[in-house]
Structure prediction request, 662 residues.
Amino acid sequence: FGVLLVVHTRGVAGGSKEEARALVQQAMKLNKAQDAKRKGQLLQQAALLDPLNADAVREVAVAAAQDLLGPRLPDDPGHALTMLAMAALQDYRKVAHLDSRRTPPQLCDMLVNIGHQLEGRDRPLMAQEVYEAALRHDPSHANTIGSLYKVREWLCDWEGGGGRVNAFAHLMTLVRQQLGQKGSEEPEVRAVQTSLQPLTALSQAVDARTQLYIARAWTAAYIGGMHKAAKGNRFLMGAKVAKPKDGRITVAYISADLRGHAVSQQMKSVFKQHHKSSKVRVFILNTFAGNPGKDGAEIKGYVDQWVDVAQVQGSTLAGQISNTLRVHIVVDLAGHTFGHRLSALAQRPAPVAMTYLGYASTTGAAFMDYMISDAVVSPPDLAPAYSESLALLPHTFYPLNTQQGMAQGDTSDTRQHHGLPTTNASGAFVWACFNRNLKIKPDIWKVWMALLRKNPSSVLWLRRFHIRVQDNLKKHALKANIQPDRLVFAGRIADRRKHVARHRHADLFLDTPRFGGHSTLADVVWATVPSIVMPGEVMASRIGASLMSAAGGASFVARNLEDYEEVAAGWARVGALPLHAYRHSINASLGALGGAFDSSAYTHRLEGLYTLAWETFRARRQPDHAPLVMGGLALDVLRARAHALVYTRLPPPLSQSAIGDS
Prediction:
């Protein structure tokens, strides 16, 4: 609250400018955490002595902004601390203007960092206030522009559609400038953290090649100049390689998500099957610093060695992988997400590097040999959008945790309990989408609202989001002439078995096209509920199509938004009975021995892919863009299958009589 003194006593407290400068110099030497309180006191004294000392006022303003990160604060732009921080930043803006100073970019960088931390604490409204304050200081600050755009997208704030479109166009102009891209030419690799982060780019209208360029630039920024040295595999140039013990290849998975996270849920069955394997020895390199919880404890029991490396980075970790653990294949489960160790992998600590599951796009890394995928998610024709060579599994690359249970016989688990219309109500059709709010965009929202208008008794079942997101979606519904009470928001259920079980109350799931559901769609398939999916050209948009086709639901794959609406509306017209027939088909595919979702067969195929990659290395062949294919499927068959899923017009839904006759 010392900032209030600065705001309200200017012109009252005098003092020496020289003394103020001395206090600032003294304060700036205090960089230890235990000195933070003393540092703040010195800066406040300096600001009182000389209210025009820009350095003192700036540092006090930054401290006030950092106070927003305190625990248990509500996400309230009107909160006293938020208003205090905004007033202090405004004070600095005035002082800097009087001093004819340009705001140092470090200030905006610090504010953007604070905003990102606020988002991580589920305080997007306060983050938005901080970004807007930063932009007032420097309207051209590129990272602020990108962060503000992202948080507005997260909030589903689409007001003034033209403004949103213009903001995105401006953002992409900045990104292309940062990349050094001219026209359609491929830019040289630049080590730059673009205004649009790789993960955020997946949910935006960014084409596959641009996603590659963005990922490549961020990777180069993470690893400094090492990307040039890492282009050649040092193990192919004479380095000694450890021989597999007992004929087993050592595979090390590196991740921060083997805890209460979607990645751990999908990988449990794989690790359990690895435990029985005579082909691979499995290590976990855990980059998460906290308690991995029950999921981590379970996975620990399935692997040969679990190594905590949260505090280990770069060359130290690379040395541990190469010299201590003697890893043959390192499998990155992070990509451009939390806890990645691209800086270590850039140093080629293992003969083969593969990326898999945790990040649905290319890493843009020259040192990453393979992307594990399938022919629907990553058709060979789209291989130029990957820096990695493709390593393709048959059926689907996405593992399903077939060991997980589902709550059965819970009499309280009814539609009415979840706020949904009862099944015997006339036309009570339940559309559902449990994807994250950042994936919901105006184009697919328009389609969903059209479906609600065509089916007056239907409802749209969504995840419960931040209250501002819910309010915004209700406003968008009203603008589309849909009453807000037809949006039903599903609260969090801690018991995962019950969470998955409630999916069965939906008649039809509606996937988001640009960045579709991944673990969410896996839950939908496990609950035997069909989903409309629409694959595009980017990997993140195609995983739902892979899962649905592997589950025998290729007829639910739409080629464009018009198809999407047409097919979804068709299923609603014929009602729930034909959809339940498809549920039996999905259920049969889940239980098929040796099929797409058989955990033992899936892991056997995955281990076969690891063996194929290892044999390629042993033959001293550099990975190229001819994909590794596991399962004996010819490339022309893979291309035809992927092509058909995208471009073939879907058949109309079967009539009730046709279902009855079959």
